[in-house]
């Protein structure tokens, strides 16, 4: 095969992308130097995965940088600030946010080890403590984990959050600036522990299907790496709780469960509701959810998967978290498809994601119908297409 998505050409381009965003003094890549000039937790975990696929030791440095931000109690913050803190207040701490984000460091540590780039005991211990913190401080009596801010879930402007009173519900009345201001104001509703970690909110608490799947997945990945039965048991228990409490048979997706605020929007069909396939032990649920990635009346858009079902009124294929296609989600879908032996579907998704990533100039996300570049361009995590290539 020749052309820009041929493996060697792709690796060269992905290396150039990451190198352009690498800061040697800080030891990590920024997602994009203008839009996102700080460290973001799951972005940097994905960057570490990409470095590992490039066989580059910066994988180890970048994963360590994520965990260097760990607070005294164990929370790994969703952002560590560059030289200038952001304009938005993200909690009482001077150098990092007080919020969680999907803890992809368990998965990253496992990928690095598989590529002959083992992380040291300090990083492994921190990763474990990061997962322990979520387990001890964010787990409800029913066994599910909750988040206290939309930014913690990774998909900040999802239509699933619409019933929390955020402005803009449909493609016609959605206003990104107003929604961002609403999200920023929610930080003032948080309670913080002595070390600065956010523990509760008076206006937004929810048990998101995807966040629970991500935590279970990262517990399972770290458990495998450490051969730790106790962690593996936690992963299985959390996946089982999500199957019992979050599975929505009518939608054939895992739905979110509001705790403080919210309403029926928590069940809007979004592709994050497929992520349970990363961890469930139930083949029926996994296949029913994964099938929807390609069904035209669900997420199966030409440059998809779309992040919101194409037939839902809130579907806006070019809008941030409201329908556009996201490369890091495609990477996770790819892992889930492989886990369930759907190698052909996985290969098709990988091929299309590679083509869309290259054509969009490595965009942060793209229009699910026509592949048009959207958001920050270029964005580091789009290099994940290299890790979707198992040829
Ligand atoms: C946006 C995304 C979030 C990501 C960050 C940096 O806030 O919603 O998931 O981590 O950008 O790329």
From TrEMBL:
Any single Pfam family the record assigns to this protein: MGH1-like_GH
Keyword Hydrolase: yes
Gene3D superfamilies in the cross-refs: 1.50.10.10
Keywords: Glycosidase, Hydrolase
GO molecular function terms attached to this record: Glc3Man9GlcNAc2 oligosaccharide glucosidase activity
InterPro entries named among the record's database cross-references: 6-hairpin_glycosidase_sf, 6hp_glycosidase-like_sf, Glycoside_hydrolase_63, MGH1-like_GH
Highest taxon above the source species: Bacteria
SUPFAM superfamilies, sorted: Six-hairpin glycosidases
Residue ranges of domain Mannosylglycerate hydrolase MGH1-like glycoside hydrolase in the record: 36-382
GO biological process, one term: protein N-linked glycosylation
Family, as annotated: Belongs to the glycosyl hydrolase 63 family.
Record-given protein name: Mannosylglycerate hydrolase MGH1-like glycoside hydrolase domain-containing protein
